[in-house]
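General statements about sequence and structure are easier to judge against a single worked case. No coordinates are needed to read the tokens, only the vocabulary itself. The sequence in question and its structure tokens are set out directly beneath this paragraph.
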Amino acid sequence: MDRNPSPPSSEAEEEGDAVGNTVYSKHWLFSILTRLIEVISPEKTEPSVSPEGIHTELDEEMENDICKVWDMSMDEDVALFLQEFNAPDIFMGVFAKSKCPRLTEICVGILGNMACFQDICMSISKDENLGQVLLQRLCDSDSPTLLETSRLLLTCLSQPEVANVWVERIRENPSVYDCVCFIMSSSTNVELLVKVGEVVDKLFDLDEELMLNWIKNTTCRSVGPSVDDSPEELPDFKIVPCILEAAKQVRSDNPEGLDVYMHILQLLTTVDEGIQAIVQAPDGGKETWSLLYDLVCHELCQPDDPPIIVQEQKTVLASILSVLSAMFASQTEQEYTKMRKGNVKLTFSCYFILDMPLIGSLIRILQYMEGCGKRSVDNSKESEQQETGRADLNEEDFHLKILKDICCELLSNMLQELTKENTLEGLHQGHLNEQTCSCAFRNLLPLYLASVESFLEVLREADQTLADNLEKRFPSLKVHA
């Protein structure tokens, strides 16, 4: 069944039978809850019941009815009614006894809808037994159940009043790390990967200690109660390769999902341990750099895109460039350390250090942002009398400024390390010319004056005429041959 049936237009004919201000019948809802109890507590073995006496499949009528409750639970009055009649306790029984994946999925989904309302969310969150059982659902082998569990967790983590309860619970439950890593590294379900990514992103954003624990976590553990077709022991997961694998799965089908996983990587780089986890991987960070490089140079903000595309892609670009910048700075520092210790000339042998297509892409992003800046000025003049319009423009400008700052930092660091050979390569490939260099200088000056002057000295060796023309355009530069 691809979608849940729509709720019936209930005929609450008996006086006082309506649930709150809805047209749904209390009697009907109560009857479904009663039938649900009977499903998980059969008195006799039936054809649809397993040898252990537990249903493995739902009959069509029961599935339709419980799906109607699922849809109805989006209404606050219905959610409160379910809470009043201890529906969460009934669902606990389902999780403990049911071998029917569809029934488990629906019950988690109903809880997820109920958790959208603050008081109910607080009640669900403070129930320690229910909380532990829900976390165990992350070990399930059924993708729809995993999806609904992730939605429920994200809903609770998004409620400030209870977020810390769940963060602490997850921190104390080591199996969550293993199960989440297993999903990210092995699932091909894009919708599930996006939702799990949103949970991880929210967790890392809420609690740096938990993020540090997951960065350092490399031990193999049992994942708790065994679930059919799921491993009792999971491999020795490391967080970065799992994030990369999930990002590769979602990159083509879900731009929002890619944005989520790039932001997770960016959060990792806010702590030294996260940067080291990336650059000190067995491949030295090559897989991470290659993926991000490919996104910037071959997918995002391309030459045949209109400049306005930078508005649509500004957040994912900011995350990607932030990670690249952190990796570049870390590897550059390591190269200088090696040079000082070995008393040898700095060669920048690292595979990504001086990549001209990336420099060309950074300049193109700055060019597109200049185009968007002009458009924003024009729009602001047209909307001077519209407060909402100005607020939207200010928000756009804020995110573009973040992107510009990150882009300029990385570009300045890369330009500062260029050699004559690198520069000649950039000129030959068309990444460096008077137009692109002028754009770079406009954005880098005056903050990155030292980097621009260093680059101009090298450029003079590669193309004297171009260097002279740029110096005339930017007379504040003082370059001594």
